[in-house]
Structure formats: C-alpha cells, structure tokens
C-alpha cells in the first residue's frame, strides 16, 4: 500500500520538450534530470539501493517498460543500461551486453558525475 502510494508520485513523460521523470509528493516537485548527477548519485541514495531494489523490482520493471513504450512510440531508439538481473525482465527483441575489463571504471564514472554536477551547480550559482 505504501509502495503503491510512492509509485503514484512518479510520472514518466515529455516535459519541457524532453523525456523525464517527474517526482511530485512528500513536499517535492522536481524532475529526475535535475538531480540525477547530484542527489541521486549521493551516498544516502546509493547505500539504500540494494534494499529498495529488493522490494520494488516488479514496480521498477513495469515503470521502465511503460517508459520504453512511450519513447519508442515517439520514434526514439533507446539504449537501456542496468544490472543484467533486472534487464532480463525487459521485453525486447534486441539485446546485447557490454562487459568491462575493469569494474572500477563504474565507480570512477559515478565520482566524476558527482564532481562535475557539483561544479556546474557552483558555477551556475556564481552567475546569478
């Protein structure tokens, strides 16, 4: 029941001319694209992903499948990145897997995203 109420706070669609997820609830009104490299890459979120993923996989798959359907109907080709165990549930006639020789690259990429996003935020605040 609680999970269903949280899922209703998420909406996938085309906002401001681009596809995004809108979060509306619990005092928040924002788009994932605005926080994807800052808040969502932070330690508070990261440490809870395994716990949350364990109880929301069905909802996540349904949400992603709906988003993919919306985008492909709009003529968009979609490359979906994620854990193999999750991606195996996405219905598609096309599937391939990229493999990294050094998995530490993933952590370095995440760190670079967070640093870059913070630098951009600081630059934007200096300009205003």
Describe this structure in words.
The chain has helices at residues 2-7, 32-35, 43-46, 49-73, 84-87, 104-127, and strands at residues 10-15, 18-25, 28-31. With 128 residues, it is α+β, with helices and mostly antiparallel strands. A three-stranded antiparallel β-sheet has the order 1-2-3. It is globular.
How would the blueprint of this fold be written?
Blueprint lengths: L1 H6 L2 E6 L2 E8 L2 E4 H4 L7 H4 L2 H25 L10 H4 L16 H24 L1
Antiparallel strand pairs: 1-2, 2-3
Provide mean pLDDT, rounded: 89
Helix content percent band? 40-55%
- The number of helical runs is 6
What string, H for helix and E for strand, traces the elements in order?
Answer: HEEEHHHHH
Note the main sheet: 3 strands, antiparallel
Q: Give the number of DSSP strands.
A: 3
Distance linking N and C termini: 43 Å
Structural class: alpha+beta
Uncertain residue segments: none
For this structure, the quaternary state is single chain
Which strand-content bin applies to the residues? 5-15%
**Large-scale geometry:** globular
Radius of gyration based on Cα positions:
16 Å
User: How are the strands of the largest sheet arranged?
Assistant: 1-2-3
């Amino acid at each position: 029941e609680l999970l269903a109420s949280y899922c209703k706070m998420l909406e996938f669609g085309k906002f401001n001319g681009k596809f995004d997820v809108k979060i509306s609830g619990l005092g928040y009104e924002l788009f994932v694209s605005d926080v994807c490299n800052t808040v969502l890459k932070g330690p508070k979120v990261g440490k809870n992903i395994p716990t949350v993923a364990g109880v929301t996989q069905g909802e996540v798959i349904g949400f992603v499948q709906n988003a993919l359907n919306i985008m492909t109907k709009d003529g968009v080709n979609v490359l979906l990145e994620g854990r193999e165990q999750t991606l195996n549930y996405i219905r598609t006639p096309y599937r391939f897997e990229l493999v990294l020789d050094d998995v530490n690259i993933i952590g370095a990429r995440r760190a670079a995203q967070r640093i870059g996003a913070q630098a951009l935020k600081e630059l934007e605040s200096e300009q205003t």
